[in-house]
Design a protein that fits this description.
The chain has 2 domains: about 40 residues; about 230 residues, Beta Barrel (Porin), CATH 2.40.160.40. About 15% of the residues lie in helices and about 40% in strands. The protein is built from 2 helices and 12 strands. It has a 12-stranded antiparallel β-barrel. The longest helix has about 35 residues.
């Protein structure tokens, strides 16, 4: 009798457990379908590239995508006709590769001719703007480490500037907050922190704070007008008047598998750690230069 009762109770428990599992599975299926139907639609192509001129944008490429980028700047227009208004010399170039580990996460490396800078970066998209405005902006963060391999300028006077390898490093930390307003206009704010392990003068500060502003206005299906202006926010050297805010105006031209960007800028360098704090050319004196970027994705 006891055995029979045990079998009956056990059978009912198994049956009840099976019913609960079936109910839970049905509920999960219903909730999953509900979530899919309520899934927000993300805003795409806030910017057409992962860089605008020299500043990174909020964009990341799709998973498994390799992006190769060539950036080139000629000399200053103010160098005159004998230098063919900068086209004959004083050029800087940067080559870079970025690989997307996911739709949100990418890693990259690059090399600039100016001061022989090597760089590496990690970029992650935290939030993406939705059409419903539940998420009104896209937010991406980036960390960059740079290493200069230039000849030590202190060797001339017998007092090494880069006494240790670690002195050759600098870092950039950036938050990119962007919004696409309709189909034609996009805008981004980029709070930025730059740190140099060693600085030129003992009175200089190792850290620089800045706020980048990026804008894009689409004028046709394949062409957009672009602009960058970076505000330096803290006094990091006694000679602040020797340096100027970086300012660029340009155009994006979409041509199939790549984006061609042409612009004029007052910055010589192509790395944010260089052109944000140490741009010496002045738009007011005609010290601007022609430049272009070409990016190709695979």
């Amino acid at each position: 009798m006891n055995n029979k009762l045990i079998f009956q109770v056990t059978g009912r428990i198994v049956l009840l457990f099976g019913m609960l599992l079936s109910f839970a599975q049905a509920q999960d299926d219903f909730l999953s379908a509900l979530e899919k139907s309520a899934k927000p639609e993300f805003v795409s192509a806030t910017f057409k590239g992962t860089r605008l001129v020299g500043m990174p944008t909020c964009e990341t490429q799709g998973k498994g995508t390799l992006e190769f980028r060539v950036a080139h700047r000629f000399g200053d227009f103010s160098s005159g006709g004998k230098n063919f208004w900068g086209l004959d010399g004083g050029a800087t170039i940067q080559l870079s590769f970025d690989y997307s580990l996911s739709d949100r996460l990418s890693i990259g490396i690059g090399r600039s001719s100016y001061q022989k800078f090597y760089d590496s970066n990690v970029k992650y998209k935290l939030f993406q703007q939705t059409t419903s405005n539940k998420m009104p902006v896209s937010v991406t963060v980036m960390a960059m480490a740079n290493f200069t391999d230039q000849v030590d300028p202190g060797n001339v006077i017998g007092r090494p500037f880069y006494r240790y390898k670690v002195n050759r490093f600098s870092y950039v930390h950036m938050v990119m907050i962007a919004r696409k307003f309709g189909e034609r206009f996009s805008f981004q704010l980029s709070p930025t922190h730059i740190h140099y392990n060693v600085v030129e003068k003992i009175t200089d500060k190792n850290s620089i704070l800045a706020l980048g502003t990026l804008s894009r206005i689409k004028v046709s299906k394949r062409i957009a007008v672009t602009g960058e202006y970076i505000f330096r926010l803290n006094k990091y050297t006694r000679n602040m008047s020797n340096y100027h805010n970086s300012f660029s105006l340009g155009a994006d031209i979409e041509t199939g598998g790549h984006v061609f960007q042409v612009y004029v800028a007052n910055s010589t360098a192509l790395n944010p750690a260089q052109f944000i704090p140490y741009t010496t050319s002045n738009w007011g004196k005609g010290q601007v230069r022609l430049g272009f970027n070409i990016s190709r994705v695979f």
